[in-house]
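tool=predict chain=A
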Amino acid sequence: MAGKAKGFTLVEMMIALAILTIIAAIAIPAYNGYVREARINAAQANIEPLRIALEDFWLDNGEYGTRNPETWIPGGSNTLESGTLNWRPDPGDRDMFSYSVTSTNNSYSISVSHIRYPSDVQTFSKTLP
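tool=predict ok
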């Protein structure tokens, strides 16, 4: 009695590969969308402590700070830490985001961008009436 050969045929392997390819084609873009949304949410959350620092500076001084932009760029310019606001990001986000603040006497604008994805910039602006 001849035994059946064990294993998969070429057709079975091709069908399994096609199914895995379809699943990957659906799952990878969905995953990338979730990652992008998480980066945007983290950038928006990082705006809040910087906004509070600006509001505290305004309460103490009656203006939002210098007219020179202050920035935090990991490994580069860190004038937010040494400038008028004396602010630095939390240690967990210190190397992931760059921050920029531009202010006048009655307005300010905060921009936060992810280091790896600089096109995903989140901006918050405020002008006093």
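Residues 11-127 form one domain. The chain has a mean pLDDT of 85.
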